[in-house]
Amino acid sequence: MTIETLKNTIPDYAKDIKLNLSSLSNDETLNVQQLWGTFLASALAGRNEFVIQQIANVASEHLSADAMEAAKAAASIMAMNNIYYRFVHLSSNKEYQTMQAKLRMNVIGNPGVEKDDFELWSLAVSAINGCGMCIDAHEAQLIKHGISKEAIQTAVRIASVVQAVSVILDSDKALNNTNIAEPKAA
Is the pTM of this model over 0.90? Predict the structure, then answer.
């Protein structure tokens, strides 16, 4: 499997997304584990079955079993944390910020891969899910551990492109399942 299978499903109107997917899959800002873990965690956050399958196939060629599990764990724990902490951050009642979350998050402390890689994947998922509080927390950890701003930006670029692919394919599927007529040429 290559990323080509996924690229070939992207319609012509989304050529920019196709080109960005291609260039990011060959990006050298991140190491191989960071790159493909970010792709996988982002695909899982995007929830499109085809995108998940294709990226998981490619990622499995580059990641250890432990790294595959850790990328899945990052998507999983951030699915929960991003909702909770976005609520805490957005609520007008600031009392929630003083309350303990009382949610298990042990995987963050022991992800089974390098902590920096897990933080990077968690940041990418948090960007997709739009949790500013989580974005800030993960970015601060990455900076503290010497991860460059270029690496952080690359992870978020991957997240944005993978999310766009998921949205495009979901939208096209929805449109193809309707009786909407093609617009007439002007």
Answer: yes
